[in-house]
Design brief:
The complex is a heterodimer.
Chain A: H1 6-26, H2 30-54, H3 60-90
Chain B: H1 4-28, H2 39-65, H3 69-72, H4 77-83, E1 109-110, E2 117-118, H5 123-128, E3 135-145, E4 148-156, H6 158-181, E5 190-196, E6 202-205, H7 209-228, H8 232-250, H9 257-288, E7 296-298, E8 301-303, H10 306-311, E9 319-320, E10 323-325, E11 329-331, E12 334-336, E13 346-348, H11 349-366, H12 375-378, H13 384-393, H14 395-405, H15 412-435, H16 439-459, H17 463-490, H18 508-522, H19 529-533, H20 540-558, H21 564-588, H22 595-600, H23 606-621, H24 630-636, E14 647-650, E15 655-657, H25 660-665, H26 667-690, H27 696-702, H28 704-711, H29 716-787, H30 795-816
Antiparallel strand pairs in B: 1-2, 3-4, 5-6, 7-8, 9-10, 10-13, 11-12, 14-15
Helix pairs in contact in B: 1-2, 1-7, 2-6, 2-7, 6-7, 6-13, 6-17, 6-23, 7-8, 8-9, 9-11, 11-14, 11-15, 13-16, 13-17, 14-16, 14-17, 15-16, 15-21, 16-17, 16-20, 16-21, 17-18, 17-20, 17-23, 17-24, 18-20, 18-21, 18-23, 20-21, 20-26, 21-26
The chains are: A mainly alpha, B mainly alpha.
């Protein structure tokens, strides 16, 4: 059971997080960015669950991560709606084209 | 049933207030549609005419109720029984002296310094002239301050009723005359040829017909207020109202500088007299505690009026040491000094003299006596009806009227002053009138002179004679003024007699009514007519002037040292006849001196001639019967106590006043000498101006010094100019300089300092306060501007920033966070 220590799990969470951030910074496709966001969230979720599993916090971490998943689902729904509307207006979902509000 | 007093007071109240209503309507009623409207005049005439009818009715009621006792020349006890019943519904009116008509006669009284005891004149004589009843009461109480009560009172005796009839009758005539005289004001575009605008053109203005009649109504109201007034304070109020209406009427042609100056002069000169008036008022109130003439009923508590307080019921001033004891004990018009040992109220004798002189000072101003006579000739700047009404017949008579009303308050010293003032005035004015060439100015100076006669008579103890002359003079002087107005109107506003002549062919009615006035004022009579048919055939002026000269003669025979008081009026009687006939000959006879004026002049319309005829009838006949006639008896009915019996050497001046008996004895002599003087004056005038046996011009050249002196009005105007006007101008200039240099300097430097401080304050604001705020704003703005670089709108970049920032934050945290 203890063969996999907390550090490994945290490392995977960190990798996931960094992958998500890299995905967000590099993708120009709006959907891609959404996927990056999911990766970041799941990296964070992994941390919650891991700390909950390896410490005496009980089920607090799992509850928070469930909450985050629900939030992410809702966020994805809103974001996909935005993406759809963006596409309707610009005939593309390239987020670099959505820079009308730059200073 | 109301008693007679309150009944009469109601009629007179109505007659008094009607002109005020007229004034209010005319002033507040606006412009009557247009300037050609005569309704204002009709309203004014209706008001004053109704006033005259009411006054006449009052006169009639008074006469029937008293059974015309006054005209019989004596007031008998039975006469009182009907009038002296004090059980009026008001309950506060009583005949002042009705219950003791014989008290003055034969009683020993003290007067002036103690120890001067005197007996009154002949018993029958004094009884013959004992005063008739007077009625006093209150219309309305204005205010009460402690013991001071200001109220609208009335004081009615035969003199009041007579004055009411005289004023309203003359005023009605003059109102009607003015409808014709002022008719050229009935226009929207009146051209005043005597006034110029700054660019040299004649002044064009809207006509002021309605305004003229509004002012006349105001004047009538004020004058009747003086006559009816029951207390001295009320007299003062209406005194000032008369002054202001006079001011408004003199300055009627307000665009003319001369009219403005004259109006100011009249007003300011009157102020000088009123100053004395106020002093007298204050003294009397301080010591007597009342303003009222007649006795008053205050909440059932009877209080003596001024006259009763000073003279009591025996007509004498009671003195102890240097104090006059006020007579406060008694009731029902019968007042006596408290007995010795009882508490009494006193008034220092010298203060009574000052009070008398003060009140007389007011009379001097209003009646244009020396030394305040200079305003009246200038007052001729007003329209001629104003001169007739205000400056000859009524307003100037108010001074004489008040002097007569206040007779009980005057001590012998004051009376002597009055006599001398009157004497000086009548002579000075008559001499100036001799050389005046402006027809209105001759009449103005003659007015002053005749007012001097009245004052003289009052000062000499000829109370009734003075008022007799007041009434007769009012009629013939208003007549002559209206005639002169008719001449001026006919000659298209030419007033210089040197340009007239022969006008009697052109304007016969004016000429012959004027002649009646001239004969009346000169005091001519047909010699011997008295001996032949029992009474002298003469116009009113003869009787009244005769009475005055007789008083003066009786006075002089008692006080030989004051012989000038007889000689001057006698000589002046001659001068009067001379200058009046000079005026008439100059204007109406001889050859026309100016053909242009003569050919254009015309008789006045009927509306102007009718009043002349009416007034001429009164001027000729109002004094019918002389001193046995109804007019004189009616005046004598109001004579104050103690006048009839005369006074033997009273007061510090030590003058004696003649009794009626003494005056009556010298009456024949006085009449003859007065007639001689008047006849002489007339003959001289006839020889100089009608049948010129001597050329007046050569006399003028011969006495050029005297002539110049008289033309310059005895240098009075110049003297006052040097003595008062210029010094006040200099003081005024000083004050102006002080104002400009010092006060304005302080103000200006304060203002400059304030401006300087303001400038500095502004700089501080602009540079430091604004600067700070601007710096903050600019910095904020530039920071914001620089931050816009980061807002690129690229999501990927934002994420990069967040990531880098978080990493940097953590790096900082780990670097600086203290290790636990």
């Amino acid at each position: 059971m203890d063969a996999v220590s907390l550090n490994y799990v945290l490392a995977i969470g960190a990798v996931l997080f960094v992958c998500g951030v890299i995905c967000m910074t590099t993708k120009r496709n709006g959907i891609g960015i959404l996927m990056g966001v999911e990766l970041v969230l799941n990296g964070a979720n992994l941390n919650f669950v891991a700390f909950s599993r390896y410490t005496s916090l009980g089920l607090d971490g799992q509850v928070v991560s469930l909450f985050v998943i629900v939030l992410a689902a809702a966020e994805a729904a809103v974001a996909l709606a935005i993406a759809l509307n963006f596409y309707n207006n610009h005939l593309t979902i390239d987020v670099d084209r959505g820079d009308e509000l730059h200073g | 049933m109301d008693s007679l007093g309150s009944e009469l007071s109601k009629y007179l109240l109505l007659a008094w207030l009607l002109p005020l209503i007229g004034f209010a309507v005319e002033v507040l009623g606006g412009y009557w549609g247009n300037r050609q409207d005569k309704r204002a005049a009709y309203l004014a005439i209706a008001c004053i005419g109704a006033g005259f009818l009411l006054s006449s009715f009052t006169f009639y009621r008074w006469g029937t109720e008293t059974h015309w006792q006054a005209f019989a020349g004596s007031v008998s006890e039975s006469g009182h029984a009907s009038v002296a019943d004090p059980s009026g519904s008001d309950g506060h009116e009583k005949p002042d002296a009705a219950h003791h008509p014989h008290k003055a006669a034969g009683t020993e009284t003290t007067h002036g310094t103690p120890g001067h005891s005197e007996t009154a004149g002949a018993h029958d004589d004094a009884a013959h002239h004992s005063p008739g009843p007077s009625y006093s009461g209150t219309f309305y109480t204005l205010a009460t301050f402690g013991s001071l009560t200001l109220s609208i009172d009335y004081y009615i005796d035969s003199l009041t009723i007579l004055m009411f009839c005289m004023v309203t009758l003359i005023a009605t005539c003059i109102h009607i005359f003015a409808v014709g005289y002022m008719s050229d004001e009935l226009t929207d575009e009146y051209v005043d040829h005597s006034a110029h605008t700054s660019d040299g053109h004649h002044v064009h203005r809207p006509g002021r017909f309605h305004r003229f009649f509004a002012f006349l109504s105001l004047f009538c109201f004020s004058m009747l207020g003086i006559v009816l007034a029951g207390n001295i304070f009320q007299v003062f109020v209406f005194w000032e109202l008369v002054g202001i209406s006079s001011f408004l009427l003199i300055g009627f042609y307000t665009e003319r500088k001369s009219a403005n100056v004259a109006a100011n002069k009249a007003f300011i000169v009157n102020r000088v007299g009123d100053f004395g008036f106020i002093i007298g008022l204050m003294i009397l109130w301080t010591y007597c505690g009342t303003f009222s003439f007649g006795d008053q009923d205050l909440n059932g508590h009877e209080q003596p009026g001024l006259f009763s307080m000073i003279r009591g019921s025996d007509g004498e001033i009671t003195t102890v040491g240097d104090d006059v004891i006020l007579k406060t004990v008694g009731h029902n018009g019968h007042w006596e000094a408290p007995h010795e040992g009882e508490s009494n109220r006193t008034l220092p004798y010298f203060l009574l003299v000052i009070a008398g002189l003060g009140v007389f000072g007011g009379c001097v101003g209003k009646s244009a006596q020396f030394p305040l006579q200079t305003w009246l000739p200038d007052a001729m700047e007003g329209p001629t009806p104003v001169s007739a009404l205000v400056h000859s017949a009524t307003m100037v008579a108010a001074g004489v009227y008040l002097a007569a009303r206040f007779y009980p308050v005057f001590t012998t010293e004051v009376l002597l002053t009055i006599a001398y003032i009157g004497c000086i005035t009548l002579f000075i004015a008559a001499t100036i009138a001799v050389v005046a060439t402006d027809i209105k100015r001759v009449l103005a100076y003659s007015t002053i002179s005749q007012l001097g006669y009245m004052m003289l008579a009052i000062g000499l103890g000829g109370w009734a004679a003075g008022l007799f002359h007041l009434i007769t003079h009012a009629f013939f002087k208003s007549l002559m003024f209206l005639c002169s107005g008719s001449v001026i109107h006919g000659c298209h506003h030419e007033q210089e007699m040197t340009k007239m002549g022969g006008l009697r062919h052109k304007m016969p009615i004016t000429a012959y009514t004027m002649l009646i006035g001239v004969i009346a004022i000169s005091g001519l009579a047909i010699p011997g007519s008295a001996a032949l048919i029992g009474f002298p055939i003469a116009f009113s002026g003869f009787h009244s002037k005769d009475a005055i000269v007789a008083t003066a003669l009786a006075y002089t025979s008692l006080n030989p040292i004051h012989f000038l008081l007889f000689l001057t009026p006698l000589v002046t009687a001659g001068i009067t006849a001379f200058y009046m006939f000079r005026l008439w000959f100059y204007t109406f006879t001889g050859k026309p001196r100016d053909e242009h004026i003569y050919s254009h002049c015309h008789e006045s319309p009927a509306v102007m001639c009718m009043p002349l005829v009416v007034l001429a009838l009164f001027a000729a006949g109002c004094a019918f019967g002389g001193e046995n006639g109804p007019l004189y008896h009616m005046i004598g009915n109001s004579e104050p106590l103690g006048v009839a019996s005369g006074v033997e050497a009273g007061g510090a001046a030590g003058v004696a006043l003649p009794s009626h008996h003494a005056i009556h004895e010298v009456h024949g002599t006085a009449g003859v000498v007065a007639l001689l003087a008047a006849g002489l004056g007339t003959i001289v005038a006839f020889l100089l101006y009608c049948r010129p046996v001597v050329d007046p011009e050569s006399i003028k050249r011969q006495f050029s010094g005297v002539h110049g002196f008289l033309v310059e009005k005895w240098q009075f105007d110049n003297l006052y100019d040097v003595a008062f006007v210029r010094p006040s101008h200099i003081v005024g200039r000083w004050c102006a300089t002080f104002d400009k240099e010092v006060l304005d300097g302080i103000l200006h430097s304060t203002a400059r300092t304030a401006i300087w401080i303001g400038t500095i304050d502004r700089k501080f604001d602009e540079t430091i306060v604004d600067g700070l705020v601007n710096v903050v704003g600019n910095v904020t703005r530039s920071v914001g501007m620089s931050l816009t670089v980061f807002q690129t709108g690229r999501i990927r970049q934002y994420v990069m920033f967040i990531a880098i920032s978080v990493v940097a934050l953590f790096a900082l945290l780990f670097a600086f966070m203290p290790k636990a």
